[in-house]
Amino acid sequence: DNITYFHQLAQKTGLTLNNHNAVNQSAIQLLVYPDQENVIQAYNRLYKRHILVGKIVYPTVAKDKPRVRISLNSQHEPVDIEQLITHLAAED
Questions:
Q1: Which of 26, 31, 36, 82 could cross-link 68 (Cys pair, CB 3.0–4.6 Å)?
Q2: CA 28/CA 16 separation, integer angstroms
């Protein structure tokens, strides 16, 4: 349910998921950014709010394919996912 909810909110917000927004039932979700600077900004914005995600940047991935790695689990409440999406969609 959390994965489906995450996808619904991501699509409403216009976030680009690695799987082209098809519902990936994995607990690991990848959010693609246009450049490394945006990934670092998103990572720092979330970290300041005690939301832990992974940042994947060059040389681990191609320079034009940086992403944020999100791990969802059954312990996350809907409000947790809502806050995550809100902060992912925010711009510095």
A1: 31
A2: 14
